[in-house]
Amino acid sequence: MVANTDGVEAAGEVNSLISNLLSLPHRRIMPIEMALVFDEIGKWSEIKLDIIEKYALPYSKILASRKNPEFHHVYIDAFAGSGTHISRTTRDPIRGSPQIALDIKPHFKEYYFIDTDGAKVAELNRLISDRPEAHVLQGDCNSILLTDVFPRVMYKDFRRGLCLLDPYGLDLDWKVIETAGQMKSIDMILNFPVMAMNRNVFWRNPEGVDPADILRMNTYWGDESWKKAAYRPTPNLFGEVKGIKGNNRTIALAFKKRLQDVAKFTYVSKPLPMRNSKSATIYYLFFATQQQIANNIITNIFKKYSG
Ligand SMILES: C[S@@+](CC[C@H](N)C(=O)[O-])C[C@H]1O[C@@H](n2cnc3c(N)ncnc32)[C@H](O)[C@@H]1O
Q1: What is the pLDDT of residues 53-87, one digit of tens each?
Q2: pLDDT of 241 above 90
Q3: Pocket perturbation via mutation, ligand 1, pick of 36, 49, 54, 79 by most ligand atoms within 8 A of CB
Q4: CA distance linking residue 277 with residue 238, whole number of Å
Q5: Res. 47: pLDDT tops 70
Q6: Three-state DSSP class for 203?
Q7: How far is the CA of 79 from the centre of ligand 1 (A)?
Q8: Who's near 6: CB < 8 A, 6+ residues apart?
Q9: What angle separates helix 292-305 from helix 43-64, to the nearest 10 degrees?
Q10: Is 286 in the pocket of ligand 1 (CB under 6 A)?
Q11: Residue 202, SS3?
């Protein structure tokens, strides 16, 4: 399957990439079985990948230079993808987050890549074949992180981790975010999929929303308090109080507060909107950490992309 990463689940979508590859002779042709593993990504995802690289470079440099030889820094990519994408703008292959992380020098001491998709996992295994410090795990990252990966990044063991949580939609469980915050050893880059939330949950008439989507929203947010952020009670001319839908930024700022107050991250970035060509916000990127220096670095990086 080729997924279109507009921030919503894309299973079953027609692969425009394949038809373009077949119909336009001047374009770069790749075998169809390869194209099936790769996502076609928009400019905003390329910006996200730039940001990941710009942060992971100084992160690895600083952690690798620690004098204490017990220090061990780990890269965790929970919704990893295949490690390669196709740029929707240029049609060229570009590195996904796992490949970017593997290329960072100095290398991380360990890498964990998780994905549910068998074809992507096979491709990831190919990428790491000569990297014994890298591990690929297939399955739902919401359980694998808690049982197999986070226990290897404990603060008391001098371990530190950079964790990317980059779902297509509402596939993430708050327990993962909260655990990452409370461990104190993890810097987190998080995709807050506001477009998927708007499409599935934040409707003007909330009674019509599928209960399964409400459940998924509760799971991502951690409880039902998103309702307060998403719907502002407003009296109309007849004195009836109606819930008026809050704007994207208000909702993202309420989530920022949860990352600080509930997950206990000391520093949380301002949410950085990732917009499509029509200026609609597809998702917000958050960065959360316990370290002031990390916060300073990301603030400088985000500045370049905001506005
Ligand atoms: C947005 S893509 C990841 C892109 C990648 N982080 C990058 O920037 O190169 C999301 C990936 O998450 C995977 N996925 C979806 N649900 C998952 C889950 N519960 N656990 C692990 N992976 C999942 C999908 O197969 C897909 O490859």
Answers
A1: 999 999 999 999 999 989 999 999 999 999 999 99
A2: no
A3: 79
A4: 41
A5: yes
A6: coil
A7: 3
A8: 42, 195, 276, 282
A9: 150
A10: no
A11: coil
Q: Is the pLDDT of residue 18 over 70?
A: no
Taking the C-alpha atoms of residue 182 and residue 263, their distance in angstroms, rounded to an integer, is 6
pLDDT of residue 246: 80
What letter would DSSP give residue 205?
S
Closest by CA position to 141, among listed 161, 163, 119, 109: 163
pLDDT exceeds cutoff 70 at 173: yes
Counting ligand 1 atoms within 8 A of each CB, the residue from 168, 189, 192 with the most, and so the one to mutate, is 168
What are the backbone dihedrals phi and psi of residue 166, each rounded to the nearest 5 degrees, phi first?
Answer: -130, 70
- For the chain, the distance separating the N- and C-terminal CA atoms, rounded to the nearest angstrom, is 35
CA–CA separation, 163 vs 57, rounded Å? 14
| Structural domains of the chain in order of their starting residue, each with its CATH number | 16-193+248-305 (3.40.50.150)
Q: How confident is the model at residue 29 (pLDDT cuts 50, 70, 90)?
A: low
Contacts of 141 (CB under 8 A, 6+ apart): 78, 79, 114, 115, 116, 176
Q: At what angle do helices 211-221 and 174-183 cross, to 10 degrees?
A: 0
d(CA 105, CA 56): 9
- Helix spans in 4-117 (H): 16-23, 32-35, 43-64, 97-103
SS3 72: strand
pTM for the structure as a whole: 0.89
- Residue 227's closest CA among 206, 212, 211, 210? 206
> Are 92 and 100 in contact, with CB atoms under 8 Å apart?
no
Ligand 1 pocket member 92 (CB < 6 A):
no
Q: Which amino acid is at 65?
A: S
Query: Ligand 1 mean position to 183 CA, how many Å?
Result: 23
User: Which residues, in sequence order, are bridge partners of residue 135?
Assistant: 112
